[in-house]
Write a structure and sequence with these properties.
The complex is a heterodimer of chains A (about 525) and B (about 300). Helix content of chain A is about 75%, strand content about 0%. Chain A has about 525 residues and is mainly alpha-helical. Chain A folds into two domains: about 5-255, no CATH class; about 285-525, no CATH class. Chain B has two domains: about 5-215, Rossmann fold; about 220-310, Alpha-Beta Plaits (2-Layer Sandwich), CATH 3.30.70. In chain B, α4 packs antiparallel against α5. Classes of the chains: A mainly alpha (about 525), B alpha/beta (about 300).
């Protein structure tokens, strides 16, 4: 382990910008959310109404179990509504940090340099585990202090358990990732495996919480939720993730001895020596490079649609007379009188936003191809820039529309099965497909950014990012109307809550065509970047 | 059609940086043309303008009789390019990448592809993410050489190859030249250019500083002389056109400008010659003169003064 201390300082030096950003983002989210509680829920009745709203299977799946519903204090709110999301954030932070300082280093060959100097075999792994553990403990502590300082209702004991819950989650996922980087040869597959473990266990835990059976104890997040900060204040469930980390870290050390530097336990398999005939034909290359993303997004969103479709009716009945729900839906421009229809409209918008993330990704990929110099190979052959960019764009538009349809069919089928009316199938499918032009507009904006201001490629994420903000956080903050109107998704009529109107959809399609045209002209005219 | 590439007074700026400043280069059809310059001199930028990947600010650029920007797609059917830094798709195998690049150019000679893979000892079933820089370079070289094209543009193609592979590469280039192909070969390795090239253009800080056959360029440079004389050789240091004058262990070393060599030999024979070695200028020296002169002279100056004293 010689050199651990030096490597640790090196890690902190390299992440001296990333670490403060993660800490600040997490703290501001927690403290910011807590600070708006008193204004949002001034009376006991308001808080209890909120508890009623949260009491549904989909929320249990996504956010974790509803805790302290009988007396829904601000603390109970924090635990029921924020803990789930924050565990995902700290888990991702820890996964990326461990991969960046282990497998990514080996992949680039930098680890070889370090290993050839006076450093022990385990020094790199030990250093990154110390860094990840320290960072998570710091975040946990700052969160506890920040929360209890923000609201007197958030007592110190509860806040400390809340912080500890976050810390052990991050540390455990750091340990899981340390094992994953032994198994996988590439940082992408290493973080992919760790993230898959995170999502998989989160979903299994979600089913446990939905059905209220023993699966709710699925680690890592299951026991973390059972610690129940502010409500039950149990410290012992947190021992489960800690024990898992305590087993996994030595396991990772041992596994690292079973392999060479830069190699993996899972050997890479050889591929074809010749390209299949589809490669080199139009769309062959795009399809080949993006089929993995298409498949995983398609499958994920189909499941998502089915899950939502099956709970809409139940949720609608449950909240028929809830004033908080009415207010939330009214803020989103939904007809409060028709609750089920409003829920369908909201879920359709949410699913469409997810599809738009996929859609924008198909175009931002072009920029990555360009700056990684892979585009240079293609554009030095007899492929025009328009064809090169156009194939990705058309692929993005067609496949995102297809995925939107798939999600819609999943939701519509399960909703109709549940409600027993075949007309309901078309109502839900229509509500979802209604968002197709908004997704095209998101793709078109990405094409325009790529063609005209490629240096500012992250701007392409504006449509999905702002759409999520307006949908999820906007009503909570009580945003003024014009702030909603920045998002193209706000111009889509909320079918079936309100009547279908083709005019805004047609206008959006025309704007999309204009942006695409401008983008393609830009791509034809500009220099390629070689950074 | 005798000129494959003609560039006249090409200017290309990136922001405030003038990457190419009134750069000119002419490549005849059927020749192997060396494009020499240190890293950052503008070789890659010039090549990317030729490929229509960058747009010229001003100047006249002709490639195979067409405009590299306007006629990019048509011209690219007739040429193959090997980038200096080959970046491949990590999820595709080397074999797949070769086929894709070849097909997009308009076709690939299967037999030649197989032969080249054998010669370069490349495993085409490996995913590109597992390839070293040299192997990625081999992929681009095989894809280029197996394509049926009339012009090869290669930007430092051997940068990652080991010496054995470099010899194979040289053999391949000679074969392509015999087959009548035009080749533009950029390099900062002088011996490679000496072995392969008919003519050379030297670029420095975005401007072409010399152009011609290797013989023509040697006229512009100096001959190295080492001699042992019976009488004191110090008087030679006063002659015009003498550089880097050193007396060491009774021997005198100096470089002399080629147009002053007659005078220098006359003087040295007057001193009584025991021993004389004259070396033709290597391309290294030619290169040093263009890129290293200020630096070298500045470094050598004190040493030289001391030696003369």
């Amino acid at each position: 382990m010689t050199g651990t201390w030096t490597l640790l300082r090196f890690i902190l030096r390299r992440d001296r910008v990333r670490i403060p950003i993660w800490i600040l983002a997490i703290l501001l989210t927690l403290v910011g959310t807590a600070s708006i509680f008193p204004d949002t829920y001034p009376s006991d009745a308001d808080r209890q109404a909120r508890a009623t709203l949260m009491e549904n299977p989909a929320m249990r799946m996504m956010l974790g179990p509803l805790q302290g519903a009988e007396d829904y204090t601000f603390g109970a709110m924090m635990t029921s509504e924020m803990l789930g999301m924050m565990t995902i954030v700290v888990a991702l932070m820890s996964i990326f940090m461990v991969v960046r300082h282990t497998r990514a280093e080996e992949e680039t060959g930098r680890a070889e340099l370090v290993r050839s100097s006076v450093t022990g075999r385990y020094a790199g792994m030990a250093a990154v585990m110390v860094a990840v553990t320290g960072l998570n403990l710091l975040i946990g502590l700052l969160a506890a202090v920040g929360l209890t300082a923000t609201l007197p209702e958030l007592d110190l004991t509860g806040s400390l358990i809340f912080g500890a819950a976050l810390a052990v989650t991050g540390i455990s996922f750091g340990a899981i990732t340390l094992v994953s980087v032994q198994i996988n040869e590439f940082s992408r597959s290493a973080s992919g495996m760790a993230v898959a473990v995170m999502i998989g266990t989160y979903v299994i835990r979600g089913f446990g919480d939905m059905l209220e059976n023993w699966l709710m104890w699925t680690p890592i997040t299951g026991p973390v939720f059972q610690a129940s900060p502010y409500v039950e204040n149990q410290i012992w469930p947190l021992l489960v993730p800690i024990s898992i980390a305590a087993v996994l870290v030595p396991l990772a050390f041992w596994l690292s001895d079973q392999r060479d530097v830069a190699a993996a336990l899972r050997p890479p398999s050889p591929g074809p020596a010749h390209a299949s005939s589809s490669l080199g034909k139009p769309f062959g290359m795009v399809f080949r490079l993006q089929r993995g993303s298409l498949l995983s997004w398609g499958a994920g969103l189909l499941l998502f649609g089915m899950a939502y479709g099956s709970v809409v009716n139940e949720v609608g009945e449950q909240y028929a007379d809830n004033p908080m729900v009415s207010e939330y839906f009214a803020a989103l421009g939904l007809d409060v009188g028709e609750l089920t229809e409003s829920i369908v409209a909201m879920i359709a918008m949410f699913m469409a936003l997810l599809v738009s993330v996929y859609a924008v990704g198909t175009v931002t990929r072009l920029r990555a191809e360009e700056t990684s110099l892979r585009a240079e190979n293609i554009l030095a052959t007899a492929v025009s820039r328009i064809r090169w960019a156009g194939e990705s764009m058309v692929f993005g538009i067609v496949t995102s529309t297809f995925i939107l349809g798939l999600t819609g069919v999943g939701a519509a089928t399960f909703f109709a099965l549940d409600s027993g009316g075949s007309s309901d199938f078309w109502m839900v499918l229509g509500a979802v497909m209604n968002y197709a032009p908004a997704i095209w507009l998101a793709v078109a904006l990405a094409v325009a950014v790529f063609g005209i201001i490629p240096q500012a490629m992250p701007l392409a994420w504006f449509v999905p990012a702002y759409g999520f903000f307006a949908l999820m956080i906007g009503p909570l903050l009580g945003l003024p109307g014009w702030l909603y109107n920045i998002s193209p998704f706000e111009y889509v009529p909320r079918v079936p809550s309100v009547d279908f109107d083709p005019v805004p959809l047609a206008i959006m399609t025309v704007i999309a065509l204009g942006l695409i045209l401008a983008g393609l002209i830009g791509i034809r005219r500009r220099d390629l970047s070689f950074v | 059609m005798a000129t494959a590439i003609s560039i006249d007074n090409l200017v290309k700026t990136f922001g405030t940086v003038r990457a190419l400043d009134s750069f000119s280069m002419h490549v005849q059809t059927g020749e192997v043309h060396g494009f020499l310059g240190p890293n950052g001199a503008g070789k890659s930028t010039a090549i990317r303008v030729l490929l229509g990947l960058l747009r010229a600010d001003s100047g006249v650029v002709k490639l195979l009789g067409g405009d590299p920007w306007e006629d990019a797609v048509e011209l690219h059917r007739r040429l193959a390019y090997v980038p200096g830094d080959v970046s491949l798709w990590p999820e595709l195998t080397g074999g797949e990448a070769i086929d894709i690049l070849g097909r997009l150019r308009g076709g690939l000679d299967e037999a030649k592809r197989a032969r080249l893979i054998e010669r370069f000892d490349l495993d085409p079933t490996k995913k590109a993410r597992t390839y070293s820089k040299g192997n990625r370079q081999k992929v681009a070289i095989v894809a280029a050489l197996a394509s049926d094209v009339e012009l090869l543009i290669m930007d430092e193609p051997t940068a990652g190859l080991d010496p054995l592979m470099e010899i194979i590469f040289q053999e391949c280039i000679k074969e392509e030249q015999k087959a009548g192909k035009t080749i533009l070969l950029s390099s900062h390795l002088l011996y490679q250019v000496e072995i392969l090239c008919d003519r050379v253009t030297i670029i420095r800080q975005g401007t072409d500083v010399e152009s011609g056959t290797l013989d023509e360029l040697r006229h512009l440079t100096r001959t190295s002389i080492t001699a042992e004389t019976r009488e004191d050789a110090r008087v030679l240091a006063e002659l015009p056109g003498i550089h880097d004058f050193v007396i060491e262990d009774g021997q005198v070393h100096f470089d002399v400008d080629t147009d002053q060599i007659d005078e220098a030999i006359r003087e040295i024979s007057r001193l009584g010659v025991n021993n004389l070695i004259s070396r033709p200028p290597t391309l290294e020296q030619l290169f040093m003169r263009h890129y290293g002169e200020e630096l070298t002279e500045a470094e050598r100056a004190p040493e030289e003064v001391e030696a003369v004293r």
